[in-house]
């Protein structure tokens, strides 16, 4: 029996990279659910009360305009990449949960980097797959490329199962980003975004071929969560990216790779060549 694959995405460059990568591997998802704020409740600015009531006519116009704009401008772009295109509400809306429940996915594939609720996770029979632009468990959260360099961890990506926490699910595969010469941080992030999409597409293709999720390894240690970069952090990360640090870290971890075509690291727990500049969190799993 073939698996029912549903992609949940936002309108971002990464989402399109993932859809293209899936199509290159012969994977056409059964549905693409786009959280585009197309539930009527997403079109109100006032949370409740008389102001919300007075705003209803304008909210209705916004809703109709958003739906028309999506149908005319965005839907034709997505049509080649999925059998159904379903514009839905915001990520925290009840509508998006209803849309996913109706689709009954075997696997749900995340095409964006936002946090999802347990209600969304529960809609997938086998599980939810995500690819994170950092080498787990060391680099979690936002600003992964710059924080990797600061922590002494190479830039890379990790495909993992999604649980109720952030970037803590069992790891299926990790890959390094091969780096030849110093370059701008923005370019490194763009290349790593493509690596992240390719990794997830490969794991989805493997899952479809197996008819089951690949083996995964539980993360035994949790490290601090990266938050949105400050301007000062961004400047420091950018300066570090233009040194030989990215290449140096890649070369240091390169011998650990099991496959030098994809630069795949072990999915099981392993000891880094040198201890990252990070302190594990004292938590109980």
Task: Walk me through the structure.
The chain has helices spanning about 15-25, 50-80, 95-105, 120, 145-150, 185-210, 230-240, 245-255, and strands spanning about 5-10, 30-35, 85-90, 105-110, 125-130, 140, 155-160, 170-175, 225, 265. It has eight helices and ten strands. The protein is about 40% helix and about 15% strand. α1 (about 15-25) links the parallel β1 (about 5-10) and β2. The chain folds into two domains: about 1-125, Rossmann fold, CATH 3.40.50; about 130-285, Rossmann fold (3-Layer(aba) Sandwich). The chain is globular. The strands form two sheets. It has an eight-stranded mixed beta sheet with strand order 3-2-1-4-5-7-8-10, with helices on both faces.
Write a concise keyword list for the protein shown above.
alpha/beta; Rossmann fold; 10 strands; globular
Count of separate structural domains = 2
Strand content: 5-15%
Rg on CA atoms, Å: 20 Å
- Approximately how much helix is present in the residues? 25-40%
Biggest β-sheet, characterized?
8 strands, mixed
Number of strands: 10
Order of helices and strands: EHEHEHEHEEHEEHEHHE
Remind me, CATH topology of the largest domain? Rossmann fold
Query: What is the spatial order of strands in the main beta sheet?
Result: 3-2-1-4-5-7-8-10
Distance between the termini: 35 Å
Helical element count?
Answer: 8
In the CATH hierarchy, the architecture of the largest domain is: 3-Layer(aba) Sandwich
Low-confidence stretches: none
Anisotropy-based shape: globular
Sheet/helix structural class: alpha/beta
